[in-house]
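Margin note: ligand = erythose-4-phosphate.
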Amino acid sequence: MKLFLDTANIDEIRKAYALGVICGVTTNPSLIAKEGRNFAEVVRTIASIVDGPISAEAVSLDAPGMIDEAKALAAIHPNIVVKIPMTAEGLQATNSLSNAGIRTNVTLVFSANQALLAARAGASYVSPFVGRLDDISLDGMELIYDIMEIFNRYQLPTEVIAASIRHPIHVITAAKAGAHIATIPYRVLMQMIQHPLTDAGIKKFLEDWETVKNK
Ligand code: E4P
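Resulting structure:
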């Protein structure tokens, strides 16, 4: 399973990318708003750091508007993938953009039917939001299992991005479910690195090394 970073924060992207474990970035309007900077400028900066798919979201609600926005975003950098909301208008836009060779990530997916429709419309990626389903007492990861079963059975080329990831267990479960990608917040990436036994092991090795290093 590939790992993307789910943030628009340039500092986080630089630090995470330097680890060599991230191969893409996803943003959304809320993440962009947190940075308080010009959208195109943020996306351009991310593209200058990360050599991989970078999702930037269209905010129009009608297909022609989404298509116009998508063309403008795709013109910023060849690695830009346009996030399109999972609506009827969004499906039309996805299909038209797919035919025009512009990659899309259909977002705000909360059911296997929505994922199937997005794949049939030609989406390059679908983003089921695991954490937001958990938030309303549904099992977000069950959705990932369902989508993977359907996509694998029919060999659909659309890649599944497990999104709205809230903690490290989500990442492990998404990987076990066969998701192609998990997009994770920087905080979760840092949690994934940590293990108390690693810290204790380093401490003990250094203490023991002190006793012999000058011998
Ligand atoms: C993914 O593409 C979305 O940007 C993101 O994962 C949403 O996560 P949230 O539900 O924590 O806002």
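The radius of gyration is 19 Å.
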